[in-house]
Structures are given as structure tokens and as C-alpha cells.
Amino acid sequence: MKVENKIYYPSLAAVEAAAKKLQDVAEVTPITKSQRYSKQFEADIFFKREDLQPVRSYKIRGAYNKMSSLSLSQIENGIVCASAGNHAQGVALSCKLLKIKGTIFMPAPTPKQKIEQVNMFGEDYTEVVLVGDTFDDANSAAMQECERLNKTFIHPFNDEKVIEGQATMGLEIIDQAQHPIHYVFVPVGGGGLSAGLSSVFKELSPNTKIIGVEPLGAPSMSTSIMNKRNTELKNIQNFVDGAAVKRVGDLNFAICQQNLDAMITVDEGKVCETMLDLYNKEAIIVEPAGALSIAALDQYAEEIKGKNVICIVSGSNNDITRTAEIKERALLYANLKHYFIIKFPQRAGALREFVVDILGPNDDITYFEYTKKTNRDNGAAVVGLELKSADDLEPLITKMKLRNFYGDYLNHKPELFQFLV
User: Fold this and answer.
1) Sign (positive or negative) of CA dihedral 276, 281, 283, 288
2) Residue 94: which H helix or E strand, with range?
């Protein structure tokens, strides 16, 4: 371990030792070139496919490396973790492989699919406990369990052995790359992956620029680096659940503050647009956090021209029940989905007039809720419209106003909009 200004940095020796432990556990995931994205950005764009790990995310690296370092007494007492998804699966598989009893605390609303995956990977070695409504509730319960029964807590990111495990991905990328790597885009949640990977690159490929990517609704690392201290956010959006934390790890912040060349945020709508794009055109299924690095490319379109670029595809544990929401968010981001209050005149033929004379030939009604007759002249309805082109919006509103159908536009009214989306 190298110590500099009291900051922990994972040593190459420690990362190499972690890689050796992981040889028969984690896959050496491929780096694949995306011809389509390469053409779009006039660069060589490669995906590091961590979605192809046995647990469908990179989390197995850190979890296994940490748990394989436990003492005999720690193993006998068992382990505890708190997670809403990928970390839980990495811990569960590690429990089975290392024959360690583990208790995994998950929020009660966790999708059944994720709970089943954890049970499948852990088999008889893990017990899932559902508690509370949020990750913080589950985490609090896990910590209480540790104190009460003297068990070891397996942290998802703020732990030296976890960071060293995640850092093995950096070794793989450098070993696999056939040309100099100019940019690496890495998703950032708690910071374990970005801290480990960036440390390896600073040692072995110092000219590579490491760009951290966060969801716009959970900019914990960005805020902390800007404030020059680890800062806890009061509120975050949890949609990109694999990269949404209120506070990054202290160890990780100290490393990332020194190592990352930039931190950027990506709108959740852009993440959804990228997820659908990857599914429809690349046949790649990713979770929201897994799309972050690719969704960030637009922001670096000029800088990466002619460069070799690696995007970390961190995981693919996406719940199919979220598909409708993902599509909705993507359409809203692309300015193709719009919600209105429409005032329909209280007379026969008003709805037909709206459909025939106001809507364009490619406009589609996707939501319609008639509320009530507000007065004898007109009645309000909430209408959702999907447009073919974003340029069709202003002409549509103009026609509504000219014929006195226009009531209000809801997309920019979050206090009302939240009930629709």
C-alpha cells in the first residue's frame, strides 16, 4: 500500500493479488468495438462488458476480494451487507463460493426478480431480510445486526479490499488494449470502481483521461469534488439505482479527487434513451447505471474525435417491469412526449375536431383522462401526446390556442407531472 498525504491508494501489488484471487471467480470480460458509436463520434469506441460477469455486474470483483481476506473468526461469525441489487448478488455468490454464512438486508420494495437472483447465487449460505422502504433503512438494520452479533459488514464501496477488487478491471483493460487508450468513461456511484480503476491507470497509463459519470439526480462525487470535501446530499433521485448514493465513500473521494480528470452528470432521460438505443440497435441489455458511460459521449463529442475510448458497461441487472418508465423518460428527454390539460367544448363533435383538425397525422394520443365537467361551456381532460418530431410541438400548441382547446402544459409543472409519470 502506498501512502501519500495520508490518502490510501491501492498498490499494484495488491491489485495483482486480487486479480489472482479472482481468476476462477470473475470473468475476464471482453472489450468489444461498437462500429455504430465509432462511426457516430468519428472515434474508436469500445465497451468493457462487465454486464457479462456471472452476477451481471462488476460487483463480484470487490465483494469476493474482500470476503476472501476475512480471518477465521470473521468467517465463523458470518457477514452482513445491505444492498438493493448488484452488491447483494456479488456478496451472495461469494458466500457460496467461500462457504461463508451471510445475511443480506434489502429494502422491502426491492423487485422480486432481484431477491430471487440473490437467493439463487447464495443458495443455503445466504438469508435475505427485507426491511424498511429505502436503502438507508436496510443499511441501518444491517449495521445493528453487525453490532448485535459481532458480524463483519461488507461495504459496497468504502473499503480497501473492495477498491482493490474493482481495480482489477483496470489491469484487464490495459492488458487487453491493442492501442493507447485516450479516454475511459466510468460510472460513479459510491466511487469504488472509479477509485480503483483510476489508480491503476495513473500508474500504468498516466496519459489516459479518466472521466467519471454520475446521474444528474445524484451528483454526490461531483458535488464533493466541487466543495473539496466529501459532501452528503440531502435528496437524490433513485432512478439510476446502481449509481445513486447520498454520500460517496471517504476513501473513494480522496482518491477520485486526485485521480479523475473530470466529473460530469447525465440526465436520467438521456440514460433511458441510451438504454433503448443499446437494446434496439446493439442487442445489449443494460441497467441504468450500465448506460451512464455511453450516455456521456455526447458531452465529449469534439474531444474524442480520432481517439481510442473505453466505456465501462457496468451491469445489466435491469428489471423488465421498468420498461414502460424507461421508454417514457426517453421520450420526454427527446421532447417527443407531452402532457396537456385540454379544455373540450361541451358539445357533440368536440373530440373529433381535436383529433382531426388539431392533431397532426403522426401525432399519437397515449394518455387520456377526462376529469369532470368544470362548467357548462367546457370540460377538462388530461391528454398525453407522442409526437414524431420535436419541431411539431409549437405548431400543435398554436392550433390548440386558436381553437380554444388549450388549457395548460404539464411537462414543466413537476407538482402535477409526478402523478402522470
Assistant:
1) negative
2) helix 86-98
Is there a contact between 170 and 195 (Cβ–Cβ < 8 Å)?
Answer: no
Unique residue bearing C-alpha cell 445486526: 145
Backbone angles phi, psi at 269, to 5 degrees: -65, -40
Q: Residue 3 has what pLDDT?
A: 42
In this prediction, residue 5 has a pLDDT band, given cuts at 50, 70 and 90, of: low
Percent of the chain with pLDDT over 70: 95
Give the active site residue among 94, 314, 316, 343. Answer: 314
- Rounded Cα–Cα distance for residues 363 and 392 (Å): 9
Q: Which of 48, 59, 161, 209 is catalytic?
A: 59
From the CA atom positions of the chain, what is the Rg in Å? 24
Mean pLDDT of 225-245: 92
Could you read off the pLDDT of 336-394 as tens digits, one per residue? 999 999 998 878 888 899 999 999 898 999 999 876 555 656 778 899 999 999 999 99
Q: Where are the alpha helices (DSSP H) in 99-178?
A: 112-122, 135-149, 160-176
> Which residue shows C-alpha cell 470535501?
229
Residues 24-61: pLDDT tens digits? 999 999 999 999 999 999 999 999 999 999 999 999 99
Q: Give the CA count within 13 Å in the CB-facing half-sphere of 90.
A: 35
Does residue 314 have an active-site annotation? Answer: yes
Where in 162-229 does DSSP place strands (E)?
A: 183-187, 209-215
Q: d(Cα 242, Cα 232) in Å, to the nearest integer?
A: 17
Q: Cβ(327)–Cβ(271) under 8 Å? A: no
Decide: 168 and 61 in contact? Cβ < 8 Å. Answer: yes
> Grid coordinates standing for 307?
481517439
Cα separation values, 228 from 62, 223, 343, 367, Å: 26, 8, 52, 46
How far is the C-alpha of 33 from the C-alpha of 57, rounded, in Å? 19
The question of whether 39 is a catalytic residue gets the answer: no
CB 180 within 8 A of CB 119: no
Q: Which of 258, 255, 289, 252 is nearest to 274 (CA)?
A: 289
What's the rounded Cα separation, in Å, for the pair 343 and 337? 19
> Quick check: 319 pLDDT over 90?
no
174-225 pLDDT, tens digit per residue, is: 999 999 999 999 999 999 999 999 999 999 999 999 999 999 999 999 999 9
CA angle 25, 28, 33 (to 5 degrees): 150
